[in-house]
């Protein structure tokens, strides 16, 4: 799984992309996409969430590994 996930608007949807920039999933809202990216990273060992919001500002968040 990715060590970095990107959330950005793609067309009319919010996409969660891998490091390779391949779309993993897409959502109707920004909040859904960010939550999904956090969950994906947490369950796959942690990593960096890169989020480009509606105004184009890039936010970076470190997601720790989820302990099982």
Could you characterize the architecture of this molecule?
The model has no long low-confidence stretch (mean pLDDT 88). Helix content is 21%, strand content 43%. The protein has 68 residues and is an alpha+beta fold. The longest helix is centred in the middle third of the chain and has 14 residues. It is built from one helix and five strands; from the N terminus they run E-E-E-H-E-E. A five-stranded mixed beta sheet has the order 3-2-1-4-5, with helices on one face. The protein has one domain.
SS strand fraction: 35-45%
The string of secondary-structure elements, in order, is EEEHEE
**Residues in helices, as a percent range:** 10-25%
Low-confidence stretches: none
Brief characterization of the structure:
The chain has one domain. Helix content is 21%, strand content 43%.
Features:
68 residues, alpha+beta, five-stranded mixed β-sheet, 1 helix
How is the secondary structure organized here?
Elements: E1 4-10, E2 13-17, E3 23-27, H1 30-43, E4 47-52, E5 58-63
Parallel strand pairs: 1-4
Antiparallel strand pairs: 1-2, 2-3, 4-5
């Amino acid at each position: 799984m990715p060590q970095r996930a990107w959330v950005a608007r793609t067309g009319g949807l919010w996409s969660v992309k891998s490091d390779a920039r391949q779309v993993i999933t897409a959502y109707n809202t920004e909040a859904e996409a960010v939550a999904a990216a956090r969950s994906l990273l947490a369950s796959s060992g942690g990593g960096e969430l890169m989020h480009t919001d509606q105004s184009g500002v890039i936010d970076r968040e470190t997601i720790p590994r989820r302990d099982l």
